[in-house]
Structures are given as structure tokens and as C-alpha cells.
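Module 6 notes. Inverse folding takes a fixed backbone as the condition and produces residue identities as the prediction. Think of it as a translation problem where the source language is geometry and the target language is the twenty amino acids. Below is one complete input and output pair. Work through it position by position during the lab.
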């Protein structure tokens, strides 16, 4: 059995990537990003998620995270993805300003129909591609990659200017979520 994409070390810190199916640009609207932020906050406060860094991009998000003692990161992420998928699908359906509604619903529904693990819709791609950050070099590399992502894609000029990121925290400001900084 492959261990390449598994959170096999319960005490490990992991770089995680979660993408929408077919890389649909859902997170171009603030209200959808706020659902993700609220869910991350809930996971931090109630489920034992330890968040070290994060960024929401238009069609994916990256986290550097670990789990509190006696908690499983895999379970936290499973619950996070299930909850946010339901909330986001509902928000898309109920958003009168969503001009891409029918197109997005068709993509989520057709992906769900092809996946035996879903009943109706699939919002997130299956894997989180966890990579354990077991050295200072890897931590620094992934932290830089995560924070530079909005800059490299042309969304902002400086990492700290991206609202949906921990770059503000690492630059000395106060961001949207509570973090445990990487050392």
C-alpha cells in the first residue's frame, strides 16, 4: 500500500492541497471564501485542527496543518470537505447573483454521478495530497510557495495583500484565522 499521499504520522505537520473538481473557479466570490474561512475557524476551535498557514485561491486551497493530540488530521479534513461542500453547493444554488450557477451545478452533479463515493454531487477532488514537512527546508519551501501563490498568479503584488491567506500574519499583521506559527 502506498504511503505517498497519506497522513501516516499523527504528530506530523502537512502541506495539503484541496482543489475543486475540474478546477472550477468557485472562490472568485467573497461569500464562498467566507464559508471556507468559517469552517476552518470551526475546525480550529472545535475539532483540533492546528493551522500553521493557509491560502484560498480561485479553485483550490493550500493548508499547512497538523492535528491536536488525540485527533486525526484525516478525520478533520474529511469533515471539513464534507461540510464545506454542502455549504458551498447550497450557497451557489441560493445566490441570485451567481451567473455561473447552472454550469457549476452541472459540473458538480456530473462528477458526483461518476463517483461511487458520492450520492449526488462532488465538489472537492478526492485527495488532499498531504506531504509531511519533516525538515525546516520543506517547511520554508512550502510556506513560501503557499504565500507566493496569489502573487505568481497575478492576483496581488504582495503576499500580504491577499485577504484569504496567512501571509498577513507572517508579515506581522492580524489575519482572519488563529495560527500556530512555523518556527
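Target side of the pair, the amino acids:
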Amino acid at each position: 500500500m502506498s504511503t505517498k499521499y497519506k497522513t501516516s504520522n499523527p504528530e506530523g505537520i502537512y502541506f495539503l492541497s484541496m482543489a475543486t473538481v475540474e478546477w472550477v473557479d468557485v472562490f472568485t466570490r467573497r461569500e464562498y471564501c467566507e464559508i471556507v474561512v468559517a469552517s476552518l475557524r470551526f475546525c480550529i476551535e472545535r475539532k483540533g485542527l492546528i493551522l500553521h498557514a493557509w491560502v484560498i485561491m480561485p479553485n483550490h486551497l493550500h493548508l499547512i496543518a497538523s492535528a491536536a493530540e488525540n485527533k486525526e488530521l484525516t478525520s478533520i479534513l474529511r469533515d471539513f470537505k464534507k461540510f464545506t461542500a454542502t455549504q458551498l453547493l447550497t450557497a451557489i444554488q441560493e445566490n441570485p447573483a451567481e451567473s455561473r450557477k447552472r454550469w457549476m451545478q452541472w459540473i458538480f452533479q456530473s462528477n458526483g454521478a461518476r463517483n461511487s463515493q458520492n450520492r449526488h454531487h462532488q465538489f472537492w477532488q478526492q485527495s488532499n495530497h498531504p506531504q509531511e514537512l519533516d525538515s525546516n527546508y520543506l517547511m520554508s519551501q512550502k510556506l513560501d510557495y503557499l504565500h507566493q501563490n496569489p502573487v505568481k498568479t497575478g492576483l496581488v503584488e504582495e503576499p500580504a495583500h491577499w485577504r484569504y491567506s496567512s501571509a498577513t500574519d507572517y508579515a506581522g499583521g492580524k489575519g482572519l484565522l488563529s495560527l500556530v506559527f512555523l518556527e
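Reference fact for the lab report: The first strand starts at residue 14 and ends at 19.
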